Amino acid sequence: MDQDIGISDQTSLNKKVATALIINIYQQAKLGLIASLLCASIIFYYLVNAIDNTVLFSWYFSVVFILFMRWVLVKVFMKFTIKEKNLNLWKELFTVGALLSGLTWGATGSSWFLSESNTTQQVMIIVILAGVSSGAVPILAPIRNAAIAFSLAAIVPLIFHFIFMEDHKYNVFTLSLIIYLVYLIILSCKIHTIIKNSFKLQFENQALIRSLSKAKGELEVTNQKLQLAATHDPLTRIANRSLFEHDFKKAIERAERDKKFLALFYFDLDHFKEANDLYGHNAGDQILLTTVDRIKSILRDEDIVSRLGGDELTVIIEDIRDIESVSDIAERLCEAVARPLVIEDNHILVSASIGISIFPVDGLDMESLLKVADRAMYYVKEHGGNNFHFNIQLEQQKT
């Protein structure tokens, strides 16, 4: 399976590279076409009075016509939105255009253009032909066959021209041109490989960046899940004991700094164990979820609800104004929790025994406040449950 995925990725990469090479050569083709037209115009101007005008005009017309058709091909290609659809066709059309242009330049290496008696004319044409050929290689190299076809078509006629000349002094030119042609072909292959590898590296880097971004996103999600698992109850999604202790200490620090009261509500659900044993753990989970939702509906968004374990829940309420407000909240919480639940057609009744401690009346640290609230909760349990209770110190202060 992994091997199939790797093959698929490699095929996709190769297709992207092939597409990029063809797009690249079409994008920069205009510069080469303009340069070819300028060079052809120079030869035309220089030879207009030196050779048969019929031959010269026919050659120049052929050059202009082929360059024009290649220009049209480039314009049509650039307007296509989905170039990958006919990739091979565009590649072949461009190669044919390069070959035809090469043939027109190769014609300048014929006896019609090269006069044995005019060395200056020969040198000028050879220099321009060499310049056009060397300039065409980097432009045509993205399509290797196009670069090679142009080079062969442009240089081979000149080689044969010198081979068939009787004067042996041209043998040096022949050998030099053969070496130059081989050099152009090797250069075309080298530049093609460099450009191809450049695109390949670019796409691989892009894929790597996408992969790293995806991995980073997945890692962040995983870290968030781990953080959530470490600080929140997996069933109710409220704070667990660890986060409760952290939040409670911070809340005490804020209350101490701002000289305000803080209330801790310690819950234990009445008859929860019986319902859990009778109706099953799924029903017990649903009781806890519903109870937490009911508790949240009574509280403010900033109030902190936690599950310490089993059916033990806590609520931290900051910025307490007076004792009456604490009693009012406790009454509403008891009423909300005690409402009947219907789970799988079963009517279930649970209630809450709530012990309450107040900072700083009942203690100045988390441990003291927890002990007071725990004792108050057990006091409610012992007196039938479904109620709340303040500790003795608060009752004395209240009276």
Q: How is this fold's topology laid out?
A:
Layout: H1 2-27, H2 29-47, H3 53-79, H4 87-106, H5 119-140, H6 144-163, H7 171-231, H8 241-258, E1 261-270, H9 272-279, H10 281-298, E2 304-309, E3 312-320, H11 323-338, E4 341-343, E5 346-348, E6 351-359, H12 366-382, E7 387-390, H13 392-398
Parallel strand pairs: 6-7
Antiparallel strand pairs: 1-3, 1-6, 2-3, 4-5
Could you explain how this protein is built, in words?
- The protein is of the alpha+beta class and 399 residues long.
- The chain folds into 2 domains: 2-210, no CATH class; 241-398, Alpha-Beta Plaits (2-Layer Sandwich).
- The protein is 70% helix and 11% strand.
- It is built from 13 helices and 7 strands.
- It has helices at residues 2-27, 29-47, 53-79, 87-106, 119-140, 144-163, 171-231, 241-258, 272-279, 281-298, 323-338, 366-382, 392-398, and strands spanning 261-270, 304-309, 312-320, 341-343, 346-348, 351-359, 387-390.
- The strands form 2 sheets. The chain has a 5-stranded mixed sheet, sandwiched between helices. A two-stranded antiparallel ribbon has the order 4-5.
- The longest helix is centred in the middle third of the chain and has 61 residues, at 171-231.
- The radius of gyration is 44 Å and the shape is rod-shaped.
- It starts with a helix and ends with a helix.
- 32% of the residues are buried.
- Residues 1-5 and 392-399 have low confidence and may be disordered.
